[in-house]
Amino acid sequence: MEDDAPVIYGLEFQARALTSQTAESDAIRFLVGTQSLKFDNQIHIIDFDDENNIISKSVLLHQAGEIWHISASPADKAVLSTCYNKNATQLLSIFVATSESRVVTCGAVWRMPPEWESGSHESPDDPHNSHNPQNLELLCHLDNSAHGNASSVLWEPMGDGTRVISLADNHALLWDLTESSTQATISSSATLEGKGQLKFTSGKWGPHHNCTQLATANDTAIRGWDLRTMSQIYCIENAHGQLVRDLDFNPNKQYYLASCGDDCKVKFWDVRNINEPVKSLEEHSHWVWSVRYNHSHDQLVLTGSSDSRVILSNMVSISSEPFGHLVDDDDLSDGEDNHQYDKSKEPLQDSIISTYEEHEDSVYAVEWSSADPWLFASLSYDGRLVINRVPRALKYHILL
Amino acid sequence: MDGDICATATTPPDSDPARKRRVHGMLKLYYGLNEEGKTVDQAESMNPCDINGTHFDPEVYLNKLRRECSLGELMDQESCMVKQIRSLDSDMQTLVYENYNKFISATDTIRKMKNDFKKMEDEMDCLSTNMAAITEFSAHISGTLQDQHAQITKLSGVHTLLRKLQFLFELPARLNKCLELQAYSQAVSSHRRARCVLQQYSHMPSFRGIQDDCHAIMDKLAQELRQKFRDGGSSAKDLSECVELLLQLDEPAEELCDKFLIHAQSRLEANLRGLEAELRPPLSSGPTSVIDPSIGPARRLSAAPTAGSPTDPTSLGNPFLSSSSRTDILEFIDRGCNEFVSSLCLVIASYQELFVNRPQEGNLASKNIPHMAIGKLHAFVDAMATCYFSLVERRIQEEKSVGDNSLLVRALDRFHRRLQAVAKLLPGSAVPSQGTEIVVRAARERIQQYLAALQSFYLDSLRDVRQALAAPRLGGSSAGGGSHLAGPATGKDAPASLPELLSSLSASILNQIKSVMASVQLFTAKDITFSNKPYFKGEFCSQGVRESLVVNFIKFVCQSSRQFCESVGDRGGSTPPALLLLLSRLCLDYETSTITYILTLTDEQFLVQVLFNHEKCVQGLIISQMLRKSVETRDWVNTIEPRNVRAVMKRVVEDTTSIDVQVSLLYEEGTRKAHSSDSSKRTFSVYSGSRQQTRYAPSYTPSAAMDTNFLSNIHKLFSERIDIFSPVEFNKVSVVTGIIKISLKTFLECVRLRTFGRYGLQQIQVDCNYLQMYLWRFVSDENLVHFLLDEIVGSTAHRCLDPAPMEQSVIEVICERG
User: Fold this and answer.
1) How far is the C-alpha of B102 from the C-alpha of B96, rounded, in Å?
2) Do B798 and A100 count as a contact with CB atoms less than 8 A apart?
3) What is the model's pLDDT at position A331?
4) CB 3.0-4.6 Å disulfide test: which of A67, A171, A383, B780 passes with B733?
5) Cβ pair A326, A340 in contact under 8 A
6) Residue A261 pairs with which residues in a beta bridge?
7) B211, B199 in Cβ contact below 8 A?
8) What's any one GO cellular component for it (chain B) (predicted)?
9) Predicted complex ipTM
């Protein structure tokens, strides 16, 4: 069983923001935000045709500034949010004029122009298309000048696209988007108190407990928040030896959480017992920037690191299907796996499935496709986007 | 068609078979049977000129002939046709004749058959009447025999009953005979067969009598069996047979278990006594206290058999002989294993065979024998093992000499290994864990002994040094008092100079510690079974060896030094000041180098397995952390024009230098330095003391017998940890290279997260230049540093709002100044 070769797509600019289009469940589509101080930044919408192994892209201009974080609305395909640095040229002018400026990172919600989809599916090297990109339509700013720099904007998982959280320095702000997302009002906020300059580095809105939980990372600690009271519910001090870079919730086990950080480790936590991780992986040789559970098969965990590697691990022992998928599972509704399963097969061992070394620079983002659970993309700083698939042998092993 | 006809005509008449076939073919054709040539026929048959076809039209044929042929040909044709017609006619005649003949013969045959059948019909009738008669007769006969058959059944019933009765009546006699012949099993089986019958008919006096007789006999038999069982001399097989029979005789199993165990106990005790005899007689009490009377379920009954236990002359012969000549511990344990442990295993095995694993039958099952039996067995084994363990422990405690540790370790290993057999036989027993406890205790004790030995050694050498110091005043002849020590003390005539004394002292102490380490390391050798017990994997290394042995020793050294100081204060001048000076220097050195070294040694030998798992290149991480903080906390957009290299960079270079010194020290001292986290932490705190370390470096001679596996592990460790781009060799340069690579990579990542102003970029340029100036000499390939630094500057320029780089010359000036 040969696996398809990875598909590589190159952006002109450096990039570190990647997301899959959450509301899109048919097409395999990823959004990439570029980082450039000198040129207009772009959002590349990358469509992958699974059958023909062809990538097609369309480009939207994001003139507001370089993009540090991007996320897509779970309800409306056309809506997305970014965290960006104010446009460099503006910044420079301020800088020259006042010699007293700061790099400010803002959050905003955008709508893709409705035409982007029609007739824009030319091949990537169509000069016309890439030279005349359309602008994003600004819906609203998540205006947080009082609260500092936004590090990420999180949409309510499986929500109706009206609630977002933005993490700004040491504040977590819960916004209500009204009037078709053109108005954003803060409905509640939580502040991280403590010594020193505390700053959220990343966060994740938990899909469990009716979406009332938020997990955030600051420095070496991981904190859980209850969104109803906006109060801290747990805190894993020194979760990692150094900075925690990313978090992800297990989509199927409500108390499980994965984290990664500068100590080159990926740790798996049961938040009911925060004293020690359930499992700890140490496969990367430099900082781990991103960790993602597969949306359907939570044994598949993807990590991306600045050692330019992407590692796909199979964490069966702590997944929701430690002995393979059981037929009498209550939750047979997740679609694609309605086969008869052979329960007698050996339970799989935790293992590294494969290490992907297509990148030549640090990998800052990895993301599973929201349409195809066996497909994922990774993005490295030099603007290389690689689309890979779970090895077929493993896929059939999990399914059958 | 013409050809066809001609061919027919010209066919030689003598080719008979061919002709016949042709005739047949034609007949077939006539009757429409032709199959094979159907398609051909169809094509031809449409031709009205085909003389053989169905659609033959004579008129057309004739017209055709007439039109096409000349007169001669017509004549020929005619004669040919006449000839053919003639031959066809004769063929037909022959066929008709043949058919007629066959018809006639068939008619004859049918007529004959008709006659035969008539005869057969008569015979059949006769047969059926005969059969009816036979059926009638048979019914009659069976009717007649009915009565007799019933009678016979009854008679045979009576016969068997009589046989049974006879068996019953003969039973007492038979049992008696069996008893005489000692065929116990036969007796028991006979009795068992009769028992329920007798029970059922016991209201009849005669049966009653038999039953009573039987009971009496069986009682006697049981008595005899019990006697035999009690009688220790019988073999294991006999014993088990006895138990089997007794159990069948409804003997209470509990009692049997007890008896069996008592019996076994007596034998085991004999073994134990043999072992004890080998021990030096305890000072306080005589050999009577082998068996602790307060333990075991067999306590009630233990007195008698212990007192009068049959002693195996062979097992007791030895101890008497050897009680004077002491055996070493390995022999002792060996003997213990061979005699006690193996017979214990035997007992357990046979016991389980008898009481626990036997098939449950009838009423025996209800009593839940196995449960009770296992409980008893556990108690018994525990009791016996406790006795054994107390003996072993006494023996181990006698092992006071610290000389050869391998013997003890091997003995303990054997001890532990043999106990695994018990564990296998008797799962859930506390014995193996107790055994492990003993091993652990022995190991601990051994460590204590080593500590004591080290301490006394230290005091000795200190005393020698004092003497040596005092010696110059006395003439210096006895300066080398420490020459008998393991270490290379300054055994020479001339008065030792202070540094020499110092070096010899510390070297000898180190050597001593090393040898102790080597012997303690035996406990964790791969081929020792208990080395993979959790205790030996973790606690032994960290707690036992590291803390209690090494650290305690160091504490002791400190303490004794302090005592010296105090005594100076007390008595004033009784300690030579030179000694004090020397001690203080020694302590200083220890603080800086030796302790690190010893701990490194300890760590590497004992914590390696543990540490490999969370090994980190802490230096690299610390530098990384430093760099990260420095990059993250600064506002690079609004920074001022660079005037200096940032202090952080200087710190990085300093730290790298110190790491380099440290690593080179470890590397030179022997090629086996694990770069453990502890030692590396320490290296930071003792940076200033590195001068002294180098001074002692040559005395730590590399040991050639370093196991290569270990080296390869280290190699793997480092190549995995530090490797960003390429695998690392285990040597100083590679380690430092790895650290620098990690640090610079971190720097790069941090830079990419920031936005820079013009001066921010210039500051980075300055910093990188500075780093380049100082870091290249630490790494194996300076291009690597260049590459990474270029990358950093490149990334910074990329992230810079106003990329206006600084002049190289200015940068150099600033760096030189820094």
Assistant:
1) 10
2) no
3) 45
4) B780
5) no
6) A244
7) yes
8) cytosol
9) 0.81
